[in-house]
Specification:
nine-stranded mixed sheet, 5 helices, globular
Length: 173
Amino acid sequence: MKILITGEPGIGKTTLIKRIAERLGKRAIGFWTEEVRDKKTGKRKGFKIVTTEGGERLFASKTFTSKKLVGSYGVNVERFEEEAIPIIEKALKCKDCVVIIDEVGKMELFSKKFRDIVREIINDKKRKYLITIPIRDVHKLVAMLRRDPDATVIELTKENRDEIIKDIISLLD
């Protein structure tokens, strides 16, 4: 089963991904992204990638100098790739695993390696995946994902975000 989760920023897509990955256990292989906040001010200062195996790395920060920018965040593509690509490659070697990707968004899409491996996942008709995408088509790859006839697109809302986990787990089993 191919499942795409979309929704407005802050609606709970990452939280949902983490809860599903936890329920799937070792069958879930991939990553999610989390905000990094300043401990003193509580203000967001960057984003880190966290893998299902516990690896994590800051890849976007207000303090990074980079030509790759999303708002005020400099994106370090190499740092992102060092965590994301190996875990996705591992997922692709596992036949019964569910590839977890949170998210195919602006920051992640700076990576050509990432775009290429996501295309590989889309084109594998037998591959199970759970991927989050932005509410808007910020890139042609996001549009391609959204229009994949084999994928089920679920828009996460305040009304469905607490119950939807059971439905998604049953679809992935």
